[in-house]
Amino acid sequence: MQLHEYFFDLYLHFSHYTIFQNAPSLALGSLFQAHPFLILRDEAVEWMNRVFTSSDLDSQARVFKVIYDFLEAEAERKASGKMTKDMAALIGTNQGFSESG
Fold first, then answer.
1. 43 with 80: CB under 8 angstroms?
2. Residue 85 pLDDT
3. What distance lies between CA 100 and its chain's CA centroid?
4. What is the pLDDT of residues 26-74, one digit of tens each?
5. Alpha-carbon span 94 to 86, nearest angstrom
6. Integer Cα distance of 101 and 87 in angstroms
7. What's 13-77 look like in SS3?
8. How many CB atoms lie within 10 A of CB 52?
């Protein structure tokens, strides 16, 4: 397990406590931007579902902000050309896979 995954688990753990919900949400948002695959993990989906089924509108707004910031960062990354790999090559549909690096 890599370091960012440990932080991911730690922030999810602290998101269960009402007093600390703002900090883990911000930290998870930063992790999602740095490591986009984390937003697809079951634990992240469970965290979002737990927040959206609660009656805490502040937490819901924070999660929406996390999602918005993630999507905005991904759009900027794509627009800037910082996408380092051809997605077709990554999933194996490109004949030039061996040439893609």
1. no
2. 53
3. 26
4. 778 878 888 888 888 998 899 899 889 988 898 899 889 888 988 888 8
5. 9
6. 12
7. HHCCCHHHCHHHHHHHHHHHHHCHHHHHCHHHHHHHHHHHHCCCHHHHHHHHHHHHHHHHHHHHH
8. 12
- 22 within 8 A of 16, measured Cβ to Cβ: no
Amino acid at 35: H
Q: How far apart are CA 95 and CA 100, in angstroms?
A: 10
More confident residue, 101 or 76: 76
Q: Average pLDDT for residues 8-20, to the nearest whole number?
A: 68
- Other residues' Cβ atoms within 10 Å of the Cβ of residue 31: 21
The amino acid occupying position 47 is: W
